[in-house]
Input
Amino acid sequence: MSIFWNKVRGKWEIQVFVQGHRLSRLLPDPRSRPDPTSPPREARLLEAHLKLQLQRGEVPSRRQTLEALAEAYLQAARLRCTPRGVEYLESRIPHLLRLLPARLDRLTRQVVETYRVTRSQEGVSNATINREVSVLKAMLNRAMDWEWLPRNPLTRFKPLPEPPERIRYLEPAQFRAILAELTLSLQILALTSCLTLLRLSELLSLRWNQFDSSALEVPVKGGRLKRLPLTLPLISLLSRLPRLGPWVFTNPTTVRPYTSMGVKASWRRACRRAGIEDFRFHDLRHQGATLLYELGYDEGMIKRIGGWRSTAVMERYRHGREPLVVDALQALGNTFVPYLTPDASTNQLTPVDRHDRK
Output
C-alpha cells in the first residue's frame, strides 16, 4: 500500500494491494496545495479503510474478472474432480465467458437473466441453461471462499422450469431386438451396464487389472471408489471379451478403447434399425434399477449398487412397468372390497361394518 502525490491530477492518490489485487482512490481537491512530502491525515484514514474493504471483498478489484475466476476454478477442479468432471466444466464455462461481463462486480441477477434469454434464443434447452448457471453459481461460491466477492449474487436464484423426467425402459423383446443389431463387444457392454448399473464413462474406463478374484473396483462419479462383487453371470459375460490390451472394452477394429461418442452413435443406429425410438444408452442404467425394484430389493440396496448418494436422485431411475402398476392398484382395490357393498334400492356403495365382514 502507498500514498503519493499525483502530479498530473494534483491530488493525493492512495493505492492498496491485498492478495495481488490493487485498489486506488483519489482524495478530493484540497483547498490549498499541501506539502507533497507529507500526506494528510485523511489520506491515511482512507488508506486503512480501503484496505479493510478490499480484505473483506466489499470493493471488488478491477483485476477480479470472470476469466481469472474460471481459470482458478478449473485449476482447483483438476485436483478434486475426475477427468470427466473437468471435461464437463470445460464444456460449460466457454459459454459463460462469451456472454457474461468480464468483471465480477458487474455480474448481477439481471445480467444472468439476460444470459438465460440469449442462450434460449440460441436454441439451448432450459435443462442445459440450468446446468450452465449452476456452474456459474459454484464458481461464485468459490470466489467468496477466496475473498474475491463479499456475497454470491445468484443466491436463491431460481432455475428455469424443465420438462418432466423421461420414463423409458425396454420390454424383453425390444431389448433383444437392439442387441441383435450390435456387435458382440457392444452387446456385452450393454448387458454389463444393466448388470452393474455403471455409467458409460465408468464402463469405458475399466481395465483388466481392476479385477481381483471376487470383486471389481471402479472409480465413479465424485472421485469415489466403488467396489462391485463379481457375480457368475458377469464373469461369464466378460470372459467372452478378447483381451486386446489393458482396457476391458476395446474396439476390435481399431484395437483402441471405445469412445463414449462412438458407443452412443452405434447405439442410436442399432435402436433405429430395431425400430426403437427415444432410448439412450444411459437408460440401460434405469433398466437395471427398475428390475431390481421389481425383484423386491429395498431402496438402500439399490442406492448402494447404483452409487446414488440421495434417494431423490435415485428416484429418477426408478420406474414401474405399467402391468405391475395395474396389478398393484388392483391388489389395493381388493383390500377395500369387503368394506363396501351396493345398496339394492339406490345402487350406491354403502360402507359395511367391519364386524359384518365374512
Q: What stands out?
A: The radius of gyration is 31 Å. The longest strand covers residues 11-18.
